[in-house]
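Review form for a predicted model. The reviewer records the input and the model, then writes brief findings.
Reviewer: anonymous (R2)
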Amino acid sequence: PFDEPGDSVQEVWRKINEDTPLHPAQQLTMMTGEQAEAIALARQSRLKPLIRTLSEDLDAIIMKAISRDRERRYESVTAFYDDLDALLEHKPVAAQQQDFTYLAGKFIRRHIGLAIASSLLLTALAVGLVAWSGEAKRANQEAARASREAQQANQALEESRELVNFMVTLFGSTAKESGAPERMTTEEMLNLGAARIQNTETMDPLSRARLQSLLGEVYFKLFMENEAEQMVQQALATRIDLLGEEHVLVADSKGQLGAIYANEMRIDEAEPLLLEAMATAQGATTQDLEVIASIWEALGNLYWVQVRHDEARDALERALEIRQVKMGRTDEFALAAALSSLGVLHMELEEFARAEPYLEQAAEIRVRRLGNSIDTAKTLHNLAEAENQIGRMSDSAAHYRQAFEVYAAVEGREDGEALRALDGLMRAFTRAGRYEEGLLVGQRALEIRERRYGPDSEELIQNLVSMGINQGYTGDLDAARLQLERALSLANRYLPPTSRNTGAVQDALAWLAWQEGNYEEALERHQALL
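Model under review:
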């Protein structure tokens, strides 16, 4: 899991003891497309199914086998073999959490015919019992409703399969037609795909609208608002024409469009459109909780940027309630986003104690479901900041360290966010009185910054100040003086005397002078700050 030739023995030993190894699927996704496809081909598979396979039971088995925690590793080679054997026979493996959903899924996969027959038998018995109880009319109504829902589910499943197959064919053929698929950018691929969707005359109009809606969402997530708006407008026009103004899919498209307008700060257009979408979604004959939750989230974000914090909090809490309670946590990725949004809002309002539980839940989901990703790192970083503010220094330090490791795995150790996580870890150690540990972290951050920015960069100033303070607390006043004087030299070179960073350096030097017994210098520096 630590394949980095050129590292010294000491560095390899440190990684084994300190760094979290990448999961198998993560290692595959971090490779170049050509490398990953070659590995998939060698295993007589395609890339996405191989990643999915590596992300399930096999992932849990491997991570259990190489865990640094002896209590979490397999007790014996036999136990390891038994789990591999269970994997091949689609039986539950000991490395996974043995909850009902997991065990039921394994049973159904092994006995799919029996599961279907049992389901049909139970349904028949349930209907028979209801009729036997004298509620035949209601039973017939329920049966009709169940039949309609089953038909809708089958239709949705068939539509999803059709759309997935179309998308695979679409982008595969589009890439080939481009003449140079290996050099195509994401934007070029999406634009060619959008044109092909528009020009495919045999496609059902509602299927085309759904694909346009999906492409609009992808464009939006890539900050390509003009293309996103065009796709969603086309989907909206088709849905209104074929389904009427009051259909839930029309509300979905209006909600998407409102979110795009809000992101472009077209407030006067965004708010009425989102309110109209909400009224349609809540009044539709067939309600879609996902659509309603998404519109509440778009409204919450709109109110947030307008500094209407009470309304933003209310809207985001409504969305969270739908996802957490009414939808039963069925979409954990969307649930994590909802939790994170509320946590960050409370942090912005300096309500750190209220932010912490939201961020803790979001971090748990993202660590478990996303692994090493930017969203995971940001959530861990925000959680560490909240814990720092409420005095939970041990938890804060652990989450700063975890955030750094994830940032480093995704973006590299010299990434700016990774360095800020290290700065946070040093502050947490300082506040907890763990000055020696703070110094070690500060030295590590300083070495990375010197490699990235050079030894005379403005980027070193805050790092040097933090290290000087830690050295002062350990009693090494001479070393502290050297660090702070170096920080002051850089501040004088790059910053005006009234800047915040220059003031921080002067304040730290005044504190150090007081520790040294140089009270006159301390007084002069404090007076200069005033």
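Findings: The chain is about 80% helix and 0% strand.
Further findings: The domain at 454-530 is CATH 1.25.40 (Serine Threonine Protein Phosphatase 5, Tetratricopeptide repeat).
Recommendation: see findings above.
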